[in-house]
Amino acid sequence: MKNTNKQFFYSKEALIYDKKRWSSMVGQYTDKIQKEIIKSMLFDVSGKKILEIGAGTGRFSILLSEMGGEITALDISQEMLNILKRKAEKADIPNKINTVQSDASQKIPFPNETFDFCIIINALSHIKDTQNLFKEVYRVLKPNGIFLSNYPNLISVYFPFGVIVNLRKRSLWEKVFTKWYSLKEIGKLYKMNNFRIISIKGQFHFPIHVNNKIFLYLLCFIDKIFRNSILKYIASTVFIKVIKK
Known about the structure:
The protein is α/β, with parallel strands linked by helices. Helices cover 42% and strands 21% of the residues.
């Protein structure tokens, strides 16, 4: 694969990715909650073929493998995937996760109707051509295949930050392409690509580097309110489960 700025960014991030994002109190809580959300939305994965796009260091690939899924982890960074492999060996599941280095913004390197499930967690907002990505996900999913993704919600309490991100076309904190979506916009993309929404959950979070018990208690309280109530539509992160028509 030809080297790109994006590939270089994630390769450079690989060694510090987990510590930087998931080691603080809020980071650990976010990690735990996101895994709980995935388990609740993809509760029956045993024996299913699952593609994770933007797998990174394998937080969710390993979780789904432990739940009985047959995982293919795709990421643009081989360094990220190398860490995933080491984690899989430590978890005693080295042969249950297949890793593939590829850029998900291009053609997904698998035949039509290969997978039962596809997930993209914390990565959708960093892929420029979402329309093409959704077409490719549709192509590689089997009939009635399930697609689970999340995205930073533009129409949320963090609206001013989302506007800044979308104007700059990059993350607030990192030099990487980022886009926040509204539910209307993301719903239109699903509809255009023949996906039907099954369920939605909200997640509320503070910056993951925060290491303060007061913030953590506040986060836990707010996050529970936003999870399944009407407030999920204005949560800072929205998880959407769809099915291939």
